[in-house]
């Protein structure tokens, strides 16, 4: 059993920041509410919080962002002819292989440009709309599509068209102080992409698609292969729908404004994503908010990497050694969606809070499945952490509902918190976390189904554990240096079903302050995985039958049917005709194996040997029967 040290971060400052935030809204609905409502008007600043708009959206989308209709007869046409350009209409002019758009309007572009550029240099109040109607644009010196100035550029992908944009491997700048543009599609102002067509981007120099303001995508099939970031909106990224295949030498999707606390957020409300990123899959400087979508993300070398990774909280491009699938500095909220995450580092990570309100997760990671420096709250969802160093980790962990399976090489659920990059303890993948045995930490379970397979502690809190509902099944460690349950404060058990099996050397039990009775059965020798443990009441009715999936010597059992002062008969082995889910049997009958003993629960937390002998409780955290003799 190891105790770890951390510095709790952002508790007060984060609450102040979140309290001041508004909501990213879909202004196309023209919905307004009073200032006392959680909804803000469509003219509010672009700040994303954990509140969605009336349509359940986190991102900001105007009506024109979503309008992909266009008329061939009403716009200026730009025909690309490999090395020359023909313009028919007003607002644009061509010189050799460069076309410059200088006014608001609609511009319909088609054809092939072997070495040239579409440049937008309009007024700061102009909205420029470019229809990509089957183009193949390449530049050998710079960005093929460059928005130098406009209020907003809307890039519409014409239906049933294929569009390709490929930039130079090295850019030619006019002087040493100039470093823009730096993406295959680059905008210094707001950039929107819509339409049902396809867009294939080769970001050979740096980024694939980049906006220095807000990046909004409402549709399209978008493929990006970028040397640095695939999609980047400095101030924010909002994605409503689309199909995305992103390959990035750094982050897949990024919002990185660290200078303005109201910016640097990402809101995703749908779409299908296949992201292969050398560093983070999706990274937001402030908040990452997802209401729906289908995500398949691999970061770094994936969870099977044997390389040593030194993680850091830095989000700068030059020093980023982060390999997380979903990452945000302040908050990460997920409403729904499908997530298949294979991360070299944490799968979900924030320096602040994580809130899971739904979704289906399949997670394999070289470090934590979900990590929050402050609070991790799970209100619903199906979470399967197939591989991790630690499964769920935060200073405070609150589980209200959901189905959660955790497999970890160290602690399954660890209420200790931690901040990557500040520590002296290195995990198997090189990850660092700093922990302490003191401080204010806690694990609270009020509902849900939680199944843990842990190589270290099963449930570990450097503070209290409070359980008042749900089903918690722990297949804990087989070594005596860890325990199925480990806490430093008090374990108040006041409801639900708890089964925690594992080694006996560090076995702990719920505290005497609990209102629901529990029994800790300790064997003189190790029991083999799959051995049934069966409890009957005085009437011979089944209270519980459970088969641990790993070898065990101690098993803590508590259900709402177990009462202090009542007598119970315990068995091991035998068979059961019912159905089993996660080792817990239901709706059948038990065939007797070996009757161990009959015991009365004299205390609210009772520890006995297999022969019924009482074992004096002590140990850590006010519980913890320790077996005499053979451990």
Could you say which overall geometry the principal axes of the C-alpha atoms support?
elongated
Instruction: Provide the structure class.
Output: mainly beta
What's the total count of β strands?
Answer: 55
Strand content: over 45%
Instruction: State mean pLDDT (0 to 100 scale).
Output: 87
Largest sheet: 24 strands, parallel, barrel
Low-confidence stretches: 1-49, 308-319, 419-438, 617-631
How much helicity do the residues have? under 10%
Radius of gyration: 29 Å
Please tally the helical runs, counting DSSP H or I stretches of 4 or more residues.
2
Distance between the termini: 15 Å
Any chance you could write out the topology, listing elements then pairs?
Layout lengths: L10 H9 L43 H4 L9 E7 L1 E5 L3 E4 L2 E4 L3 E9 L3 E5 L5 E12 L6 E5 L2 E6 L4 E5 L16 E5 L2 E5 L3 E6 L3 E5 L2 E4 L3 E6 L4 E3 L2 E4 L3 E6 L4 E3 L9 E4 L3 E6 L4 E3 L2 E4 L3 E6 L26 E3 L2 E4 L3 E6 L4 E3 L2 E4 L3 E6 L2 E11 L3 E6 L2 E10 L3 E6 L4 E3 L9 E2 L5 E2 L8 E4 L3 E6 L4 E3 L2 E12 L9 E3 L3 E12 L15 E10 L5 E4 L5 E5 L5 E7 L8 E6 L2 E2 L2 E3 L2 E3 L3 E2 L2 E7 L4 E5 L22
Parallel strand pairs: 1-5, 4-6, 5-7, 6-8, 7-9, 7-10, 8-11, 9-12, 10-13, 11-14, 12-15, 13-16, 14-17, 15-18, 16-19, 17-20, 18-21, 19-22, 20-23, 21-24, 22-25, 23-26, 24-27, 25-28, 26-29, 27-30, 28-31, 29-32, 30-32, 31-33, 32-34, 33-35, 34-36, 34-39, 35-40, 36-41, 39-42, 40-42, 41-43, 42-44, ...
Antiparallel strand pairs: 1-2, 3-4, 37-38, 44-48, 45-48, 46-47, 46-49, 49-54, 50-53, 51-52
């Amino acid at each position: 059993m190891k105790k770890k040290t951390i510095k709790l971060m952002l508790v007060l400052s984060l609450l102040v920041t979140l309290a001041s935030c508004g909501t990213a809204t879909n202004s196309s609905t023209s919905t307004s509410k009073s200032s006392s409502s959680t909804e803000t008007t469509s003219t509010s600043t672009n700040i994303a919080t954990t509140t969605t708009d009336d349509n359940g959206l986190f991102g900001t989308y105007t009506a024109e962002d979503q309008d992909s209709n266009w008329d061939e007869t009403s716009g200026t046409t730009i025909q690309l002819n490999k090395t020359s350009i023909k313009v028919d209409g007003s607002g644009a002019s061509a010189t050799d292989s460069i076309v410059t758009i200088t006014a608001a309007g609609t511009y319909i572009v088609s054809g092939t440009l072997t070495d040239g550029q579409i440049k937008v240099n309009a007024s700061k109040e102009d909205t420029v709309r470019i229809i990509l109607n089957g183009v193949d644009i390449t530049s050998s010196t710079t960005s093929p599509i460059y928005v130098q100035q406009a209020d907003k550029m809307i890039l519409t992908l014409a239906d049933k068209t294929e569009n390709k944009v490929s930039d130079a491997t090295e850019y030619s700048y006019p002087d040493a102080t100039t470093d823009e543009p730096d993406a295959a599609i680059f905008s210094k102002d707001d950039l929107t992409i819509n339409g049902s067509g396809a867009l294939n981007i080769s970001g050979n120099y740096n980024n694939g698609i980049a906006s220095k303001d807000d990046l909004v995508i409402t549709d399209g099939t978008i493929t990006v292969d970028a040397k640095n970031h695939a999609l980047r909106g400095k101030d924010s990224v909002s994605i409503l729908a689309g199909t995305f295949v992103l390959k990035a030498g750094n982050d897949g999707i990024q919002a990185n404004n660290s200078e303005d606390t109201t910016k640097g957020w990402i809101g995703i409300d749908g779409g299908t994503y296949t992201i292969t990123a050398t560093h983070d899959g999706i990274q937001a400087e402030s908040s990452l908010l997802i209401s729906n979508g289908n995500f398949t993300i691999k970061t770094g070398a994936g969870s099977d990497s044997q390389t040593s990774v030194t993680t850091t909280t830095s989000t700068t491009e030059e020093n980023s050694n982060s390999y997380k699938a979903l990452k945000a500095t302040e908050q990460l909220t997920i409403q729904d969606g499908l997530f298949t995450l294979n991360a070299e580092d944490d799968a979900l990570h924030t320096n602040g809070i994580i809130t899971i309100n739904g979704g289906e997760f399949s997670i394999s990671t070289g470090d934590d499945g979900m990590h929050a420096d402050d609070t991790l709250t799970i209100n619903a969802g199906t979470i399967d952490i197939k591989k991790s160093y630690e499964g769920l980790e935060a200073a405070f962990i609150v589980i209200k509902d959901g189905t959660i399976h955790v497999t970890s090489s160290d602690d399954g659920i660890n209420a200790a918190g931690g901040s990557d990059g500040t520590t002296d303890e290195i995990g198997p993948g090189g990850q660092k976390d700093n922990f302490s045995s003191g401080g204010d930490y806690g694990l609270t379970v009020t509902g849900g189904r939680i199944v843990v397979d842990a190589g270290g502690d099963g449930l570990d809190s450097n503070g209290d554990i409070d359980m008042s509902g749900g089903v918690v099944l722990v297949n804990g460690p087989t070594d005596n240096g860890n325990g199925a349950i480990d806490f430093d404060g008090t374990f108040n058990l006041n409801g639900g079903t708890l089964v925690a099996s594992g080694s006996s050397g560090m076995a702990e039990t719920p505290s005497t302050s609990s209102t629901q009775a529990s029994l800790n059965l300790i064997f003189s020798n190790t029991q083999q995985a799959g051995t049934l443990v069966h409890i009957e009441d005085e009437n011979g009715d089944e209270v519980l039958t459970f088969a641990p999936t790993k070898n065990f010597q101690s098993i803590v059992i508590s259900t709402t049917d177990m009462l202090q002062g009542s007598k119970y008969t315990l068995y091991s082995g035998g068979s059961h005709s019912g159905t089993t889910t996660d080792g817990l049997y239901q709706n059948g009958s038990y065939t007797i194996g070996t009757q161990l003993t009959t015991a009365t629960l004299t205390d609210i937390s009772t520890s006995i040997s297999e022969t019924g002998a009482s074992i004096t409780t002590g140990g850590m955290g006010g519980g913890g029967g320790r077996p005499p003799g053979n451990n």
